[in-house]
Amino acid sequence: MAIQIDERRAVPRIALSGHATARTQTGLAVRLLDLSPHGVRVAHRSLLRPRSPCALDLPAALGGRVRCQVVWCAVQGVEPMADGERALRTHSGLQFEPLTQDQHTVLARA
Fold first, then answer.
1. Phi, psi at residue 18, to the nearest 5°?
2. What digits encode the pLDDT tens for the residues 65-86?
């Protein structure tokens, strides 16, 4: 289920409820927090370097593989893992590279 975030942005973001997930081309699992036709905010357990390129495998209903650039990455805290260790909990903002017309249409509908 999607919920529109009420904020002052040129392009509104849609919050994604549930546990929508994706993977980067390096295999990093990310949880999708919100998205717009221009980018996505994700939660994950490691650091992503700002300005670095990446590809994100979104669910097919959200356009499939898209090329992105990391805009920002911020540590939100730490969380315990099953083995007793602790892992970073981070959020990152990813800006989409130019999308195909089909991807743009799918994301605009979301």
1. 85, -150
2. 889 999 999 999 988 888 888 8
**Which residue bears the tokens 């089909």?**
102
* d(C-alpha 35, C-alpha 4), whole Å: 10
Question: Do 75 and 90 meet the contact criterion of CB atoms below 8 Å apart?
Answer: yes
Its sign, for the CA torsion 6, 8, 12, 17, is negative
Structure pTM? Answer: 0.79
Amino acid at 56: L
Q: How far apart are the first and last CA of the chain?
A: 10
CB neighbours of residue 97 within 10 Å? 13
> Tokens 């999607």, residue?
2
